[in-house]
Amino acid sequence: LFHNNLIDTVSMDSAAFTRRWNRLGIGFATKIIHVPFESIDYMGRETGGGQYIETIGGINTSYNLLSGFYFHGISIGANIKYAARVVPAIIAENQSAITILGDFGILTRFNLLKFFSSRERNFAIGASLQNLGPNVMGEPVPTTIRAGLAYSPIRPILLAGDIIIPWNPFSDVPAENIGFATGIRAAITSFLRISSGFTLQGGSPRFVIGNQIDAGDFLISANYTLDYTTQFTHPDRFSLTASLDFGDHGRGALRRQVEQLYLDALIEFADGNLESSAALTNEALEIDPSFDPARELKKLAEESLDLQQEMSELESLD
Description:
The chain has 318 residues and is of the alpha+beta class. It has helices at residues 251-270, 274-287, 292-317, and strands spanning 2-5, 11-21, 24-40, 46-65, 74-86, 97-110, 123-132, 144-151, 157-166, 179-187, 192-201, 204-214, 218-226, 238-244. Helix 1 runs parallel beside helix 3 (292-317) and helix 2 (274-287) packs antiparallel against helix 3. It starts with a strand and ends with a helix.
């Protein structure tokens, strides 16, 4: 859930929900910006009012390909969205419109120049095509190509950067200039994170600073945006986000079970109980076939058993 005060009485609200089943993810989201509007005649007298509204929403699906213990895999995703503009006739006639848009993205993670120990990869790289769709009333939609990376050199610090390339594939109207964005997040404590970012796109550079408070399954983020439209005398450009974690549907418990079976198999292997070690790795792989260390230990245990069998046969021949 997200709320952002923009300018004066103008505000933006959104809601999103996501869920994952192993490698498959789904989600939906909607966002609305509402602008109270007053119609005034040439004498400055109010002749009417209304709400100018822009809204966008849609559904998402994503999937992780080729993932394993050593390789995060390649995550791909797509959104199908609607976008609508509602302009009351008292403000302007025949200006309301609706269209369908699409997003497509790809992401992978790996370890690079990592100076801490963690199962999580510290480097991510991705790209996306956003808002691909036909012209609306002769005007191009804001289609953009984005590419970016994120890097965590040490556990508390995360650095990120994006390049933003506007594109008008279905119009002769020149696209805007290329934009850039950078950001940093620092974990001050286990429950408090400070974040900041800078975006340069179009004619309005934007600087954001904020914090995140992690209360277990509940996350609150508060941010303040400074740009050419910010007014220090009003609480404009202040945003508040609340996120609720409904759980991982048992994925974490299964991962811990697999890791424990693997550790037990290692102990059995070190004690020379090869058959027991192979059986435990089989149990681990039945739960998570992508847990490569268990597969490697199973192969080693089976090869050791075969070697013992060959040695026993040679001894019997002697």
